[in-house]
Amino acid sequence: MKLARVCACTVALAASLSAAMAKPVATPTPLPRPFGRGHVWFHATAYAPYTFDDTIVRVHFDLARGIVYGDETAVVRPKRALRTLPFNTLGIHYQRVTVDGNPVRYAFDAARQLINVRLPALAAARKPLGVEFIYWVRPQRGVYFIRPDRGYPNIAPEIWSQGEMIDNRRWFPTWDEPNQKTPSELVVTVPRGWTVVANGYLKSHTHTASTETWDWNAPHPKSTYLIAFAAGPLSKHHTTLGQATDGNVAAFGNGSMDVDSYVQPRNANLNALCFGRTNAIVAYFQQIIGVKFPWEKYDQTTAERFTYGGMENASATIQTQLALHPTIEDSERPCDGLVAHELAHQWWGDDVTMADWSNTWINEGFATYFQELWSEHHFGEAEFEYERYQAQQAYFKETQQYYRPIVDYVYNDPLDLFDYRGGLLDRDWVARRGEDT
Ligand SMILES: [Zn+2]
Q1: What separation in Å is there between the alpha carbon of 348 and the centre of ligand 1?
Q2: Cα separation of 281 and 273, whole Å?
Q3: Structurally, what CATH architecture does the domain formed by 49-233 represent?
């Protein structure tokens, strides 16, 4: 994930103001902002008592009222004999829950944000169980409804999701920790004329007179925070990886992989300028990592009013539409940093994932470092050094606000861990451990 640029500026401004106001004193001055807003507690790594065979989520919407109607089938295998199956959930209204087709009872654990599905009998270890949830939710986070309003009457409607860190539990029940991976399938029904982009490959696309349904299947297992979709009347720019002009593509045998980008129709002429070097960056990362791109295809979609700069959903990255810009601005603000960062996460974070949120820094550290390696490759050594300097300064400014360990299990919200600790990872760190590590 990459925070919007405005966040970095706000941190820098706050740090410079506090530095200007500081006076020399004999005793240490309390840091101006306590980590986690001063209310923090220990978070043990939580492991699911089951593994996933599959997670299939079918959704349709009431756009005007901001409601998600869901029908999910989670196929799980208990790790040991179980009476109860816990799933993270928040704000979802359940109409029916079944296990292997039979209605079952369930109870909520509000403090731990769980629905505990009660099994009619002790379930044997490793025997698959099909749990189906029929539900609806008007999510406060997780899924976002963009609609034209009095202030922005010309905006096109959109619906998109943002899971990281723990917001996917707000639109489908799941094990919402990074340590349990699942294949996934999203079947999304939207108004006729819309496009839906999601993880994996397009299994089917059907329509009625007023709706269309996009079925995206993603069999390669991923952590649940990486499951996402973006939907709206989008404009598509299609390429294949074989079009890359830079780096050793053919050696990895996926030259025909689709690499597509989707933007708002009014921005269609800005699409290729922002995302046109994606193929070259895929090829370069494959070459220096030595591992083929790990997913079925690579899509990038810009979302209106996106909550962050970008989010590396496996094979289906979503970025802010604010990244788009005309040619005259391209030398000042190319999309390469954002594109390379989210693309690097497809290996670092998506394919290889931390066990818990306390180790998020290593995801972000590698994504930031590889973003800088692309800058070195494409823009030169000086740009690499300048970006390293900026990443380190962001960390030093943060230490004027609060101190915390790099790996920290004592926090408030996992989003608090999403700061500039990753900027410390650099060439020396990698060199000391060996590039093979
Ligand atoms: Zn990131």
Answers
A1: 9
A2: 14
A3: Sandwich (2.60)
Q: Which residue ranges in the chain fall short of pLDDT 70?
A: 4-28, 30, 242-255, 425-437
β-bridge mates for residue 201, sequence order: 217
CA atoms of 351 and 347, how far apart (whole Å): 5
Which pTM value belongs to this model? Answer: 0.90
Length of the chain, in residues: 437
What gap in Å lies between CA 103 and CA 76, rounded to an integer? 17
- Residue 300 alpha carbon to ligand 1 centre in Å: 15
Torsion angle, alpha carbons of 46, 51, 56, 57, to 10: -10
Q: How far apart are CA 129 and CA 96, in angstroms?
A: 16
CA of 159 to the centre of ligand 1 (A): 22
Distance CA(376)–CA(310), nearest Å, equals 21
Ligand 1 center from residue 208 Cα (angstroms) = 39
Assess contact for 41 and 410: CB atoms under 8 A: yes
- Which neighbouring-strand residues pair with 74? 55, 131
310 Cα: distance to centroid of ligand 1 (angstroms): 8
- Residue 433: its pLDDT value, please? 56
CATH topology match: 1-18+33-45+237-437 vs 49-233 = no
**Ligand 1 center from residue 109 Cα (angstroms):** 31
CATH of domain 1-18+33-45+237-437: 1.10.390.10
Taking the centre of ligand 1 as the mean of its atom positions, its distance from the CA of residue 241, in whole angstroms, is 23
Q: Which residues lie at CB < 5 A from ion ligand 1?
A: 1-2, 364, 367
DSSP 126-162: T--EEEEEEEEE--SSSEEEE---SS-TTPPPEEEE-
- Cα–Cα distance measured from residue 251 to residue 84, given in angstroms and rounded to the nearest whole number: 48
**How many of the other CB atoms lie within 10 Å of CB of 40?**
17
Residue carrying structure tokens 């930031």: 368
Amino acid 226 reads L
Q: For 296-341, what is each residue's pLDDT tens digit? A: 999 999 999 999 999 999 999 999 999 999 999 999 889 999 999 9
The whole-number pLDDT of residue 419 equals 84
How many Cβ atoms are within 10 Å of 235's Cβ, its own excluded? Answer: 18
Instruction: List the domain boundaries for the chain.
Output: 1-18+33-45+237-437, 49-233
Residue indicated by tokens 């999701």: 161
Q: Which residues pair with 133 in a beta bridge?
A: 72, 97
